[in-house]
Amino acid sequence: MTTTWRSKARTARDKANDVVTRVTRRPPRRIRGDISPLWLDFGRTGRDQVGFLTEFCGLTPNHHVLDIGCGVGRLALPLTRVLGPLGGYQGFDVLPYLVDWCERNIAARHPHFHFTHADVRTSIGHDPGVDAADYVFPYADASFDLAYAGSLFTHLTPDAAANYLAQVARVLRPGGVFAATWNLYNRRSEQALPGRSLRKAWPFARDHHRLKDAEHPESNVAYDELWLRPAYRQAGLRILDPLRPDATYSPLRVPQRVSAAHLWYTNTVIARL
Residue 1: what pLDDT? Predict the structure, then answer.
């Protein structure tokens, strides 16, 4: 059974909430809850991410930015106050109702912002489409100065992740920068993070990655750093050490009542073409 009818129903319902969005400048709670926990401060984390990209990736108003897995505009909304008329933004996502919301509420007011539905098949909510391992980003070579993927590779298995890295390298301009979040571990991880078990968070071990749910592999994935570094090199991307804590899904943001030990394994990898 496909999710097409569900997406159409959600889009119709969300259009009715657009008047509220114009006042709050945020997506409805229901949409935000589909892609991230509601304890996450949507506005603040988006602004913090823009600050991170400015400080560590050299984001400027003239940059052309690609947002891979753009969701419901958490990064795009604060970028509307940063990117100037010589810059531009492209975002894509596998969930069409999220793209529809962004088109109505962001692109309609900012003509240099564009959103695209990526018809990619997943095991966690989007049945039709091509396999992520075969997906070709719908952009010309050397189109972007900066690419960002937040909480995306945490939901891709190795063949798909390798393809996305190759696609990023293809669409980046020479010298372009790529920032992405990954769940990462190495042989010292559990020693450095006592009481935060890797095996408990991702109990299903594979060759160089671990899964939270074997039946739905893309629900959450963690990678061995020994896989990650050669994968970046093979794609033509040079990692700029050190690896940094994720600016959004930081364990320090988590309310005390919430169990999220896996976030201690979440890192941002910055690379240059």
Answer: 43
182 backbone φψ class: left, alpha, beta (φ>0; ψ -120 to 50) = beta
Element holding 67 (H helix, E strand): strand 64-68
Residues 205 and 198: their CA atoms lie apart, in Å, by 10
Q: Over the stretch 73-104, which tens digit does the pLDDT of each residue have?
A: 999 999 999 999 999 999 999 999 999 999 99
- Tell me how far apart the alpha carbons of residues 193 and 187 are, in angstroms, rounded to a whole number: 11
Can you tell me the distance from the alpha carbon of 94 to that of 86, in angstroms, rounded to the nearest whole number?
28
Alpha-carbon gap, residue 84 to 63, rounded angstroms: 8
Q: Are strands 238-239 and 221-224 parallel, antiparallel or unpaired?
A: unpaired
Calpha distance 135→107 (Å, rounded): 24
Q: Give tens-digit pLDDT for 25-39.
A: 778 888 887 777 777
**8-state DSSP, 243:** P
Write out the residue range of the structural domain in which residue 101 sits. Answer: 4-272
What DSSP line would sit under 77-100, residue for residue? HHHTTT--TT-EEEEEES-HHHHH
**Counted domains in the chain:** 1
Q: Residue 207 and residue 223: Cα distance in Å, rounded?
A: 10
Cβ pair 248, 154 in contact under 8 A: no
State the angle between helix axes of 225-235 and 158-171 in degrees (0 to 180), rounded to the nearest 10. Answer: 40
CATH code of residue 185: 3.40.50.150
